[in-house]
From TrEMBL:
Domain of life from the UniProt record: Bacteria
InterPro entries: Aldolase_TIM, BKACE
UniProt-recorded name of the protein: 3-keto-5-aminohexanoate cleavage protein
The keyword Metal-binding appears for this protein: yes
Keywords: Metal-binding, Transferase, Zinc
Cofactor dependency: Zn(2+)
Keyword presence, Disulfide bond: no
């Protein structure tokens, strides 16, 4: 089992907007359908954000999450992973509103405050479907995603200690690994660690293959090779090449329309499941086995699907 690869799928996120792809899932029905299809294609973990069904903007509203999360659980045995990142425009209380209510097996946790932006993308778009999109994308140039040490400590306590939720530790730079090591040293984080290394976001590490090696070797020094499981997220066109490299290095992989809208050069992905199926084909061509949801639960020490509050 230790050699099996966990496929995570981030279904919609809060970065891309409706104008950027007609296939981006926005409504609760669309999010549920794409998540279920991704699980059927081989995703063991489903990473979920919510969107306002009227215009597709990101929302932290628990009532919207409730329209698709229980439906996904009923239709799949996948691990449901709820964001605590939300978007750069949400307060910490808003970002935690649904996770605290749902008490899922897993939540994402960004390991530091950072500049996080895709504002250059706005230059390539001349017409927008909704009035909120252009200022949302352009406005990222002057926003910071906030997760201070105190914020992270609070999340670890109220979700981890009090709800039994474990975390996908999102690390966008080498310093984020050291932040995680700090919380391990403080006794606030206990293994097994699941570290999501993220490349290609403006404000974080670039998508150079050498950076993947740097993150892997740094994590080895900080946690020991057997002290963590690492996964890789490559943004945009860097998705499949970096994930293939990660798999060869013994890592796990994350796909989904949150991370990339494309399946190949100039080819929009029509669903998250298309990306899951593609990376699964690559893994199997490399003679690697894909982990089932229950195998992922055992590998990551999760509390189990019956211990959630939805």
């Amino acid at each position: 089992m230790s050699d099996k690869v966990i496929i995570s799928c981030a279904v919609t996120g809060s970065v891309h907007t409706p104008t950027m792809s007609p296939y981006l899932p926005l409504t609760p029905d669309q999010i549920a359908e794409q998540a279920i299809e991704a699980a059927q294609a081989g995703a063991a973990i489903l990473h979920l954000h919510a969107r306002d069904p009227s215009d597709g903007r990101p929302t932290p509203d628990p009532a919207v999450f409730d329209q698709f999360v229980p439906r996904i659980k009923a239709a799949t045995d996948a691990v449901i992973n709820i964001t605590t990142g939300g978007s750069t425009r949400m307060t910490l209380d808003e970002r935690l509103a649904y996770p605290l209510r749902a008490q899922p097996e897993m939540c994402s946790l960004n390991m530091g405050s950072m500049n996080f932006s895709i504002h250059p993308v706005a230059r390539k778009i001349s017409e927008w479907q909704h009035a909120w999109e252009q200022p949302y994308v352009e406005g990222m140039e002057d926003l910071i995603f906030r997760n201070t040490f105190r914020d992270i400590k609070h999340i670890l306590r109220v979700l981890g200690d009090e709800c039994g939720t474990r975390f996908e530790f999102e690390c966008y730079d080498v310093g984020h690994l050291y932040n995680l090591a700090h919380f391990v040293d403080e006794g606030l984080v206990r293994g097994p660690l699941f570290i999501q290394n993220i490349f290609g976001i403006l404000g974080g590490l670039g998508p150079d293959p050498e950076n993947l090696v740097t993150m892997r070797s740094t994590a080895d020094r900080l946690f020991g090779r057997d002290g963590y499981r690492f996964s890789v997220l490559g943004a945009g066109r860097h998705q499949m090449p970096l994930l293939t490299m990660a798999a060869v290095m013994g890592g796990n992989v994350r796909v989904g329309l949150e991370d990339s809208l494309y399946l190949g050069r100039g080819q929009l992905a029509r669903s998250c499941a298309e990306q899951v199926r593609k990376i699964r084909r690559i893994l199997e061509e490399l003679s690697l086995e894909v982990a089932t949801p229950d195998e992922a639960r055992e590998m990551l020490g999760l509390k189990g699907r019956e211990a959630v509050a939805f």
